[in-house]
Amino acid sequence: MQFTHEHREIQKTLKRYIDEHINPHVDEWEAAEIFPAHEVFKGLGDLGLLGLTKPEANGGAGLDYSYGMAMAETLGHIHCGGVPMAIGVQTDMATPALARFGSDELKREFLAPAIAGDMVGCIGVSEPGAGSDVAAIKSVARKDGDDYLISGQKMWITNSLQADWMCMLVNTGDGPAHKNKSLVMVRMRENGKLVKGIEVAQKIKKIGMNSSDTGLIYFDEVRVPQRNRIGQEGAGFIYQMQQFQEERLWCAASTLQSLTNCIEWTVEWAQERKLFGASLADQQWVQFKLAELKTEVESLRALTYQAVEHYVAGEDVTEWATMAKLKAGRLNRTVPDTCLQFWGGMGFTWENKVSRMYRDGRLASIGGGADEVMLGILSKIMGIAKRPVK
Ligand SMILES: Cc1cc2nc3c(=O)[nH]c(=O)nc-3n(C[C@H](O)[C@H](O)[C@H](O)COP(=O)(O)OP(=O)(O)OC[C@H]3O[C@@H](n4cnc5c(N)ncnc54)[C@H](O)[C@@H]3O)c2cc1C
pLDDT at residue 68 above 50? Predict the structure, then answer.
């Protein structure tokens, strides 16, 4: 994958916005355990950055996914994981199915304002009793005239303390677990106030990704028009599995720059830190470990770029996206951990950039499908597990 002048220009525009409008506030937002999503998204929307891969008819740029990847990579310049993740939810996790299968009316109501940065979205799949096992979700949408009445709980929902809408996976029938679900666009707030029947039960306190708000949300007979369903009734599980492909590509791409930064910061530190009459970087062990980590990150880059090339070519990238997500999860643990060690006591302090990466990066092996879920998918594709996916 070769980046063109256009890819580079998009990256420059985003980097400038990050330097001027995001990074100066990151420490404050991390401490507050929330960031002003409406303000930041409006800024990004005004620059045309929230709909790079979305249809022009809805205000997007209609570009291929390589541009989404270029953007995800540049988000790694943000000095925390929480804000990039919140942006990724808006661009690559909560909107792909809406853009692909939503009606024109639904796209006008929810996608266009999300691209403009006028609305904040979230994706509601996980529940207290169902995370890895998506088919086991319990939330229900019961028909009532032309509406659905939605009841249930959604847990771990990124952006949900501020979101205007949720793309929500719910059971709309009694059939087999993979054929009884639908994705429904649920308006969460009107003029900033929660709609009737929706309650923020808890703002979840986490070990990392602190600037990102994460909620447990209750739904009690929330009235939603049936026309808010994305695509066919009963196809929600399949749509969500497809939507996960972009989420997983995004996860891999968004870690490339931040992992690179982590290594570069540590090289600089090791060159400056003096011990035993030399610099830490003079120790061959340190040199070799950092060289090894860089090789690992570049391997992830090659894998991710290849996955995106296949995706842009219109191929099924389940296998590629799964491998890239798995490798990203692994490296988000080993790279910050190895680097942190070289910072000694400084690495163990809260404010240290590498220690923030160590805490934030831990999520990559859990969210959007845990490492073991990725291994399960790959085992099926490889024909090792009983039910082959292909
Ligand atoms: C900060 C944060 C933000 C999130 N944002 C969102 C969001 O915006 N929207 C949303 O819907 N969800 C979100 N999630 C939820 C996330 O996707 C789930 O946490 C994840 O899918 C794991 O589900 P679980 O937590 O229920 O763990 P479980 O499903 O209970 O799994 C626990 C552990 O079991 C192991 N495991 C799972 N399957 C297997 C297997 N087949 N074989 C062996 N071991 C296995 C894994 O190690 C896994 O970590 C978020 C989570 C966090 C922590």
Answer: yes
Q: What is the CATH number of the domain that holds 348?
A: 1.20.140.10
- pLDDT band at 222; cut points 50, 70, 90: very high
pLDDT in tens, 303-331: 999 999 999 999 999 999 999 999 999 99
- CA distance linking residue 216 with residue 153, whole number of Å: 7
User: What does each C-alpha distance from 312 to 4, 68, 84, 286 come to in angstroms?
Assistant: 15, 11, 23, 39
Same domain as 375, residue 255 = yes
In the annotation, is 247 catalytic?
A: yes
Fill in the amino acid letter for 278: A
**Of 77, 103, 120, which one is at a domain's C-terminal end?**
120
- 215 and 285, same domain (yes or no): no
User: Same domain for 177 and 214?
Assistant: yes
pLDDT digits (tens, 9 = 90+) for 131-150: 999 999 999 999 999 999 99
DSSP 8-state secondary structure symbol assigned to residue 83: H
pTM of the predicted structure, to 2 decimals = 0.97
Q: Cβ(366) to ligand 1 under 6 A?
A: yes
Residue nearest atom 7 in ligand 1 by C-alpha distance: 157
Residues 97 and 167 both lie in one domain:
no
Assess if residue 389 is contained within a domain.
no
Q: Is 175 left (phi over 0), alpha (psi -120 to 50) or beta?
A: beta
Q: 134: which 2 tokens?
A: 């998506």
Q: Residue 321 falls within a domain, yes or no?
A: yes
Of 214, 232, 250, the residue that ends a domain is: 232
60 pLDDT above the threshold of 50: yes
Question: Cβ atoms within 10 A of the Cβ of 169, count?
Answer: 28
| Catalytic entry in 247, 296, 298, 315 | 247
pLDDT of 390 over the 50 cut: no
Q: Is 155 in the pocket of ligand 1 (CB under 6 A)?
A: no
Report residue 224 CA to chain centroid gap: 26
pLDDT grade for 259, boundaries at 50, 70 and 90: very high
Amino acid occupying residue 12: K
Q: Is 171 helix (H, G, I), strand (E, B) or coil?
A: strand
| Protein residue whose Cα sits closest to atom 31 of ligand 1 | 132
Average pLDDT over residues 82-100: 98
Residues 210 and 260 in one domain: no
